[in-house]
Recover the amino acids of this structure.
């Protein structure tokens, strides 16, 4: 196999590993290096400057439609997916994948569709599992997958998820990764790609709005589920690969299993706090109606009965709000005595 494109994905704790990798790559590598690192959409990314200083390959943010050239590093900019097609880099403002834009999965999968066995994917430190589905797509397309040894990664989520999706991936510490990648790039050259291979892959997915079937599924989706997308609340379809299952709504938000579970937990907490707020407001309004609902001049048994109903409703809403609040934010229990000083889970703030 001869590698012409290296695609590197990282998240939390991955920048240091990325810098070590780039520092060890030769100036005449012979391949284009693509990089996606999770970053806040509104942040100003200085990653290209950092990578240029770290090694001998020039790095820059991707420009829409730029050709992929060897011996350069192309970095996904904030709030844009880095998509590869037709030998060029494209910037997409499309739906977030695993709650990220740019997403490692998007870069891996699009590069695999175009480059196939002429690419290698590299997964570095990061939390959760972005990159796992993309790594599986790369492996199915004949590309190589390299994973930072979880034993040295600051955050093991992404490396472990990638290894679960591609069990035969090469596990390697970053101190040895550059040498392995350089050897792969400089192996026997691959035959030239046909013009048809370099073009765009098909006409793209059919939009649900163009379908007459309310049970709409794309060609690669196995079935609809009762799960909903945490971002847009659309129904999630299941997509099955041999080693990993993931989920996608018809808008295009895509979820790997661990990221979906984390997003569900976050959304559930938001909804529960919204319920607390609604119950607090309901209790306050009911108490107000109990004392002011009939007007100052009106007194009758019916009004008194309405007032009692409002108070009962207020008490119930207040009880539910109090119960939910205690479940979501339980009071801190301070343990006195010697045990508080010897508890191994207590962190000494001056240590």
């Amino acid at each position: 196999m001869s590698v012409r494109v290296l695609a590197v994905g990282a998240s939390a704790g991955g920048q240091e590993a990325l810098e070590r990798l780039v520092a060890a790559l030769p100036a005449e590598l012979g391949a284009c290096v693509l990089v996606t690192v999770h970053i806040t959409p509104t942040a100003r990314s200085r990653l290209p400057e950092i990578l240029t200083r770290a090694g001998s390959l020039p790095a820059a943010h991707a420009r829409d439609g730029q050709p992929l050239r060897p011996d350069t590093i192309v970095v996904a900019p904030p709030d844009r997916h880095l998509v590869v097609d037709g030998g060029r880099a494209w910037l997409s403002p499309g739906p977030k994948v695993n709650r990220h834009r740019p997403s490692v999965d998007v870069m891996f999968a699009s590069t695999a569709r175009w480059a196939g066995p002429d690419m290698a994917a590299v997964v570095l430190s990061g939390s959760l599992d972005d990159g796992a589905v993309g790594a599986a797509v790369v492996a199915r397309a004949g590309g190589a997958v390299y994973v930072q040894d979880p034993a040295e990664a600051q955050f093991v989520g992404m490396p472990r998820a990638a290894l679960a999706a591609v069990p035969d991936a090469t596990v390697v510490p970053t101190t040895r990764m550059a040498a392995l990648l350089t050897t792969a790039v400089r192996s026997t050259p691959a035959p030239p790609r046909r013009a048809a291979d370099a073009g765009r892959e098909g006409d793209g997915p059919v939009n649900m709005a163009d379908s007459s079937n309310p049970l709409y599924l794309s060609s690669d989706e196995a079935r609809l589920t009762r799960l909903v997308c945490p971002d847009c609340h659309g129904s999630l379809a299941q997509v099955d690969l041999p080693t990993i299952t993931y989920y996608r709504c018809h808008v295009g938000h895509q979820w790997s299993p661990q990221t979906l579970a984390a997003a569900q937990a976050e959304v559930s907490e938001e909804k529960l706090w919204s319920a607390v707020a609604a119950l607090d407001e309901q209790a306050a309004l009911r108490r107000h109606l109990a004392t002011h609902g009939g007007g100052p001049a009106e007194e009758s048994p019916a009004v008194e009965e309405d007032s009692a109903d409002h108070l009962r409703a207020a008490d119930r809403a207040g009880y539910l709000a109090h119960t939910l609040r205690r479940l979501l934010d339980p009071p801190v229990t301070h343990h006195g005595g010697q045990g508080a000083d010897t508890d191994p889970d207590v962190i000494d703030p001056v240590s």
Summary: The first helix runs from residue 14 to 24. The mean pLDDT is 88. The chain has ten helices and 14 strands.
